Amino acid sequence: YLNKMKSGYTLGADIHYFISEPFGLGAKYNHAHYQYKMNGFEDKVNLNYFAVSGLNRFILRNGSEVYMGGNIGYQSYKDQAGAVGALVSITGGTAGVGLEVGYGLKMKDASKLYLNLSLLSGTITKVNVENGGQKETVKLDKEEYESLSRLEVTLGFVFGH
């Protein structure tokens, strides 16, 4: 079960303004989704990450670039698990930090194809649980903390760069 929940999909968007040739500031949004279904049981986890970001890029002679950066923001967590019509919803949120490194391959039409490796980290220490119409806030013991850390590999395309 846990091995199947380790993979899913990620969608995101970044916008940066380069205040100098190598350094840019911006914002980042990331949505990650993980799901498991088997024998009437279903578990869906959705993570959203909103952050401010800084990038340092190194432009190569051929116009391609290598960049690295960091970001800090807020991660939300929503887990919906259910079997045979009974649904339990667990939500929470925490501060998050991320590091990333990537490569932008210059294309002929002033656009770039990007490959990015990101490590996002955060830990939830308190959750809100809703079960059958009853809501409860639960402070987790240290051994129950929920890690939102993940490693992501993404492919992107930038137009008119």
Notes on the protein architecture:
With 161 residues, the protein is an all-beta fold. It contains one helix and eleven strands. Strands 1, 2, 3, 4, 5, 6, 8, 9 and 11 form a nine-stranded antiparallel β-sheet that branches. A hairpin with a 2-residue loop joins strand 8 and strand 9. The protein is elongated, with a radius of gyration of 19 Å. The mean pLDDT is 90.
Structural class: mainly beta
Mean pLDDT across every amino acid position: 90
- So what's the oligomer here? single chain
Question: What would the principal axes of the Cα set say about the shape?
Answer: elongated
The Cα radius of gyration reads 19 Å
The SSE string, one letter per element, is HEEEEEEEEEEE
What distance separates the N and C termini? 43 Å
Beta percentage is: over 45%
Give me a quick take on this structure.
This protein is an all-beta fold.
Please outline the helices and strands.
Elements: H1 2-5, E1 9-18, E2 23-38, E3 41-59, E4 65-83, E5 86-106, E6 112-121, E7 123-124, E8 126-131, E9 134-139, E10 146-147, E11 150-158
Antiparallel strand pairs: 1-2, 2-3, 3-4, 4-5, 5-6, 5-8, 6-11, 7-10, 8-9
What are the main properties of this structure?
single chain, about 160 residues, mainly beta, nine-stranded antiparallel beta sheet, two-stranded antiparallel ribbon, about 75% strand, elongated
